[in-house]
């Protein structure tokens, strides 16, 4: 019997260094990529031409090319009986801003 040869995986097209130029932390990168991948999986059109069909890979390519950015918006919430409004930050992608 022949031993199965281990196949070497191809390197990712978007090196982490290129992706980190678009986001200030790995956490932000993961959040933005996950949100965009979900949008793509739900039928949103891709913003870059790529040969891959995987939503996560397309999202990372869009981030690498600067088509998707990370922004924080402040949302005011008021609780019942509270005089002061509480502010919290919520992350958004560039595509979410266009819909608003």
Mean pLDDT: 75
Q: Judging from the principal axes of the Cα atoms, what is the shape?
A: globular
Order of helices and strands: HHHEEH
- Report the uncertain regions: 6-12, 83-89
How would you summarize the topology of this molecule?
Blueprint: H1 16-20, H2 26-41, H3 55-64, E1 70-77, E2 86-93, H4 94-99
Antiparallel strand pairs: 1-2
Task: Write structural notes for this entry.
This protein has helices spanning 16-20, 26-41, 55-64, 94-99; strands at 70-77, 86-93. With 100 residues, the protein is α+β, with helices and mostly antiparallel strands. The chain has a single domain (16-99), classed as Eukaryotic RPB6 RNA polymerase subunit, CATH 3.90.940. Strands 1-2 form a two-stranded antiparallel sheet. It starts with 15 loop residues before the first helix and ends with a helix.
